[in-house]
Amino acid sequence: MQSKLLYQVTSSKPLDEIEKALNESAARHQFGVLAVHDLRQTMAKKGVALAMDCRIYEVCNPHQAKRVLEVDGAISTALPCRISVYGSGGSYTIATMLPTAMMQAFGEAGVESVAAEVEEVIVAMMNDAAG
Fold this sequence. Notes:
By secondary structure, the chain is of the alpha+beta class. It has a single domain, classed as TATA-Binding Protein (2-Layer Sandwich). 41% of the residues lie in helices and 27% in strands. The chain contains five helices and five strands; from the N terminus they run βαβαβαββαα. Helix 1 crosses helix 5. It is globular. The relative contact order is 0.24.
């Protein structure tokens, strides 16, 4: 399902293969994976069982981030971009909130082109990861 705010793609690859492909694609596109949040593991440490896998990857291209931050520091609230991988048993969804949609909230015309460039790369990275 696609919306104006969310991009999603599915994959039957194992979670670790999706993660490996996402890291490789990010590097090819000059993006870094800054952090990975394994929500299933984090919740288990708090005594809460989550039935599905759910990992959130924080990705960023520092040059693109600098361009939008110099327009409006408040954009830092939407950075870094996040790609979520969730599901179980060989059926995973890879999803992100679209940068172009998020940047509309700031009302800064100067960030539209950067958001479109970043979005194109993030979608490509997700499609690479999904295989």
